[in-house]
Amino acid sequence: MGASHGHDAADDETPGPRVLVVSAVSPRVRTIAVERPGPSDVTYLEAARKGLGVTLRHFVKNVLGKRRPAAALARGEEVAKQGLVPWNEIETIQYPEEKTHYPERFRGLHRLMQRDDGAVRCVACMLCPTVCPAHCITIVPAEADDQGVEKKPAVFEIDELRCVVCGLCVEACPCDAIRMDSGVHAKPVEHRGDAIMTREKLLDLSKQVGKDPASTATQGGEGPDWRE
Amino acid sequence: MQTLYAVLDHPATKWVLLVFVMVMPLASLLTWAERRQSAMMQDRLGPNRAAPTFAPWLKLKGILHFVADAIKMISKEDFIPGNVHKGLFTLAPLLAIGPVLIAFAIIPFGPTIYPHVLDGTLDPLLLASQPEHQDFLHSIRLQVASFDYGILFYFAILTLSNYGGTLAGWASYNKWALLGGLRASSQMMSYEVAMGLSLMGCFLLVGSLEPGYIVGAGASSKLAPSNPLNWLWLWQFPALVLFMTAAIAETKRAPFDIPEGEPEIIGYFVEYSGLRWGLFFLAEFIEIVFISAVITSVFFGGWQVPFLDADGFRIGGYMAEVNGQLVSTGGTVLNLPHAVVTALQLGAFALKVILLCWFQLLIRWTLPRFRADQLMNLGWKVLLPLALAWTMLSALFKLAAIHFGWV
Questions:
Q1: pLDDT tens-digit readout, B124-162
Q2: Does an H or E element contain A145, and which?
Q3: In CATH terms, is domain A111-209 a member of 3.30.70.3270?
Q4: Beta carbons within 8 Å of B75's beta carbon, 6+ residues apart
Q5: Which of A43, A48, A55 sits opposite B365 (nearest CB)?
Q6: CA triplet B42, B45, B46: central angle to 5 degrees?
Q7: Nearest to B36, CA basis, from A52, A92, A59
C-alpha cells in the first residue's frame, strides 16, 4: 500500500470501503466513500424479490419434477433425464423403505455361526468378552458334548446397548464363531432387557437376514476368495 | 321452502358455514401445507408418513399429520403453571382466536344467490329494473354482515386479538412471556397504523369501505366488475404491497416473528401447552386465511371470475345504467345457469384465497427475520410515510379522474 501513496486508489482491489483519495503526505490518511442504504435497501424490496425468486424456483422444480430413483440417490449418481419431466432436487432417502449404499464390511448386529451339524461354533474360549472394551459380552461356559472342543457356551449374551461396534470380538475369535456382517442396525427397544441378544437370537439372525450360518470365513468377508 | 331460505340467509348459518366449512379446514390444512411447502422450497420431502394404524397405506402425502397433531394436542395434559393469573391465562387464547373468527363476518365469499332462478339464467337487466320481481323474491347474500364501515370493523376487531398475546404474556408470570407479550403489542400497534392507512387509497378510489361493494363495483364504472383490469391490484399496486407487508406483520409470523423469537424468548405462549397452545397456533393460521380473504376481496375482485357476469361469460360489451345501477350488457355472451355461475364464483374465491395463503407461506419461508429496531424502522419510517404518500396520490388521481371523466 505504501508504494501507491499519492496515486488515485479507485482501482484498489482490496476489500473494505472504496477509497477515494489517499493522502500524499501520510498514506494511512485517506478519504473513503460511505455507502448509504439506498431506497431498495430500506424497503428490502430488491432483496425480497431475489429471495422469493430462488425459493419459488426450488418449489416449482421440486413439485413438478420427478424424484430420482432411490438407488441412484443412495450412490450419489447422476441419472440421465427420462422424458420431458426433469428430476427434482430432493436428496432425501426414506430410510426404512430405501437404504443408502452400505460398504461391504459394514458392522451390523452380531450373529453366531454354526458348525455343519448345527451346533454352535463357539468354544467358550472367553477371548471376546476379554477383549471387549465395553464389557457387553457375557459367556457362561459349559462342558461340550463333543470332547474334541472341550467347552461350549451355556449362556452367550451380547448387550447391544453397551456394544460400541468396534468389531474386536470378531477379530479375536479364533474359530470364526461370531461375525458382525448381518447388515442390521440395532433396533429401538422399549426396555433395556430387550436389547440383550441371547444365544438363540444370535443364532437366529443368520436365518433372518438370509445368510448361511455355516459358511466358513474367506479373506475380505463373504464371497469368493480374493486369491482365486 | 320459505323457512329454508330464511334459515340459509340468517347470518348465524352463513357464519357457521363459512367458518366450519371453509376457514377451519383451510387453516388446518395450512399446517400441513406449511410443512410440505417449506420442504419443497428447501429440497426436502417433509412429513409424509402419518397414517392410521389400521390402514398404514393411507398416507395421502402426509395430510393426516394435522389430524395426528390435533389428537396429540387434545390428549395432552392441560397444564397451568402455579403462579399464573388463572382467569387471564385461560382467557388469552380465546382472545387470540375469537376476534379473527368474528372478523370473517365482513368477508363476501360469494355472490347473492336467487334460489328461484338457480336452474335458469339470471337476467341482470331484469334484476336491476324490477328488483321486486317474483324471481328475486328470496335471496341469499353470501356475506355474513355488510356494514357500511366494512373494513374498519376488521381493524377494530383485530385490535382485540392484540390483547390475546399481551394478556398471555402478562398472565404467564414469566419474564420471557412478558417480553414476548410486550413485543407483540408494540408490533401490532405500530403496523395497524400502516395497515389502515395503506387501504385508504382503495377506499377513496371505490368510494366505499364495504368489501362486498368493492367486489361488486371495481375501480371504474366503465368496465365490468368481472374484468381483471378493473380490480384494484392494478390501480392500487403500491397499496397491495404495503397492506400485505403490514398484514403479514400483524400475523406475527416470520419475517416479523419478533414476539415469538424462538431462539431467545420463545414468546408470549412459552407457558402454554396442549390445546391452549394449539389455539394460538390455529389463530395464526386463521389469520393467514383471513388476510388472504381481505386481500382477495379488496384487490383481486373477491368472488369474481374473469369475464364471468351474472348471466354468463361476456367478452366486450358495455355498462348500462338501469335504475341507478350499472349493469354490463352486450358483447359476446356464453349464457350459463345461475347455479353454475354461483359455483364458479365460489370456487374462484376459494382458489384466490388458497393462492394468497400459498404466497404468504412462500414469504414466511424465504425472508430472514427482522431485528426489533429494523422492524420498527420499517413500520414507522417506511411503511407509514409511503402509505400516507400513496393516500395523497390516490386522492389526486381520484380528483383528476372525476375532473376528466375517467371513472
A1: 888 888 888 888 888 888 999 888 898 999 999 888 888
A2: none
A3: yes
A4: none
A5: A55
A6: 90
A7: A59
Query: Is there a contact between A127 and A154 (Cβ–Cβ < 8 Å)?
Result: no
Residue pair B148/B207 in contact (Cβ under 8 Å)? The answer is: no
Q: Residue A51 and residue B43: Cβ atoms within 8 Å?
A: no
Reduce the DSSP state of residue B293 to 3 states and report it. Answer: helix
Specify the pLDDT at position B204.
92
Nearest by Cα to B192 from B258, B252, B279: B252
The runs of H, that is alpha helices, within B64-149 are 65-75, 86-103, 124-129
Residue B366 and residue A44: Cβ atoms within 8 Å?
A: no
Query: How many Å lie between the alpha carbon of A88 and the closest alpha carbon of chain B?
Result: 8
Distance from CA of B25 to the nearest CA of A (A): 23
H helix intervals, B18-149: 24-41, 65-75, 86-103, 124-129
Pairs of residues, one from chain A and one from chain B, whose beta carbons lie less than 8 Å apart: 43
Contacts of B386 in chain A (CB under 8 A): 43
The pLDDT assigned to A1 comes to 40
Residue B401 has pLDDT above 60, yes or no: yes
Task: Give the per-residue pLDDT at A7.
Answer: 47
Task: Give how far Cα A36 sits from Cα of A17, A33, A39, A41, B368, Å.
Answer: 12, 9, 10, 9, 21
Interface test with A, best of B43, B248, B371 (most A CBs within 10 A): B43
Spell out the SS3 assignment of A66-117.
ECCCHHHHHHCCCCCCCCCCCECCCCCCCCCCCCCCCCCCCCCCCEECECCC
When pLDDT is averaged across residues B260-286 and rounded to a whole number, the result is 88
Delimit the domains of chain A by residue range. Answer: 111-209
**Predicted confidence (pLDDT) per residue in A166-194, tens digit:** 999 999 999 889 999 888 888 889 999 99
Question: A45: buried, middle or exposed (CB in 10 Å: 19+, 13-18, 0-12)?
Answer: middle
Helical pair B65-75 and B24-41, crossing angle rounded to 10 deg: 120
Cα separation, B388 vs B88, in Å, equals: 37
Interfacial A residues in 123-162 facing B (CB < 8 Å): none
C-alpha cell at B363: 414469504
Say how far apart CA A121 and CA A206 lie, in whole Å.
13
CB contact at 8 A, A74 and A85 = no
How close A42 gets to chain B, by Cα (Å)? 8
Contacts of B381 in chain A (CB under 8 A): 42
Q: Which grid coordinates are listed for A208?
A: 433372518
User: Which of A227, A225, A217 has the alpha carbon at shortest distance from A177?
Assistant: A217
CB contact under 8 Å between B362 and A56, yes or no, is yes
